[in-house]
Amino acid sequence: MEPAIGLLELNSIAAGIQAGDAMVKKALVELLDARPVCPGKFIVLITGDVDAVTESMRAGEETGGDAVVDKLLLPNVHLSLFPAIAGAVEADYVEALGIIETVTVATTIVAADAAAKAADVLLTEIRLANGLGGKSFVLMIGDVSNVEASVAAGTLLAKEQGLLVRSVVIPALHEDMRQKLC
After folding, report:
1. Other C-beta atoms within 10 Å of 127: how many?
2. CB within 8 Å of 159: residues ≥ 6 apart
3. What is the chain's Cα-based Rg?
4. Average pLDDT of the residues of the chain
5. Which residue ranges form the domains of the chain, and what is each CATH number?
6. Secondary structure of the chain: what % helix, strand, coil (to 5)?
7. CB of 98 within 8 A of CB of 181?
8. How many CB atoms lie within 10 A of CB 145?
9. Helix (H/G/I), strand (E/B), else coil: 79
10. Of the four, 1, 8, 68, 124, which is 20 to 30 A from 53 by CA?
11. Following DSSP, what letter does each residue of 83-149 receive, concatenated?
């Protein structure tokens, strides 16, 4: 069984820390990330089995109260999201690079999951609002047709919700750019 991911985004640093603490105390979950993000918000990202993440999210929402501005519970998440969130993926060769940039953290996680499930790509980075004015993005590599299919699948929901900033597929990424990005 694939794990679930839970995310709370709060408009208060103090409320975010308090909610994150309640989340990890409530159920057996792994805390993937808990930190301030631009513009003055706080995110808490957890993983575990669906029941534990659901229980933990309830505790976080209750504790965070009106400071909660966004939330996500994504069951059966694709396993490639975890190393990409951690920034632990490197690639020696890139035939094509796909980029999905969204307005929210939650939307980027959903887009990355859909992209990874749509075609044979490698997620190399999921940047969650770190120094981005609250925006987030996912980078993926693979052959051109798979990257195109993954980007299309990943952008579908973001477009429908009006939360897509931009998506791009770059075939034959220059080596200098690959060294900086992948």
Report:
1. 18
2. none
3. 16
4. 94
5. 4-74 (3.30.70.1710), 81-181 (3.30.70.1710)
6. 40, 30, 25
7. no
8. 13
9. coil
10. 124
11. HHHHT----S--SEEEEEEESSHHHHHHHHHHHHHHSS-EEEEEEESTTSTT-EEEEEEE-HHHHHH
pTM of the model: 0.93
Phi/psi-derived region of residue 13, left when phi > 0, alpha when psi is between -120 and 50, beta in every other case: alpha
Residues 72 and 7 sit within 8 Å (Cβ to Cβ):
yes
User: Does pLDDT of 23 surpass 80?
Assistant: yes
Using the structure block, give the residue that is written with the tokens 């925006």. 135
Structure tokens at 161: 């919700």
Q: Name the region of 94 (left: φ>0; alpha: ψ -120 to 50; beta: rest).
A: beta
Q: Give the integer Cα–Cα distance in Å for 26 and 92.
A: 41
Instruction: Show the tokens assigned to 103.
Output: 């307005």
Cα–Cα distance for residue pair 66/71, rounded to 1 Å: 12
Q: How far apart (Å, rounded) are the C-alpha atoms in residues 112 and 118?
A: 10
Could you give the count of Cα atoms lying within 13 Å of 34 in the half-sphere of its Cβ?
Answer: 17
pLDDT digits (tens, 9 = 90+) for 32-69: 999 999 888 999 999 999 999 999 999 999 999 999 99
Neighbours of 33 (CB within 10 A): 16
Q: Are 142 and 119 in contact (CB under 8 A)?
A: yes
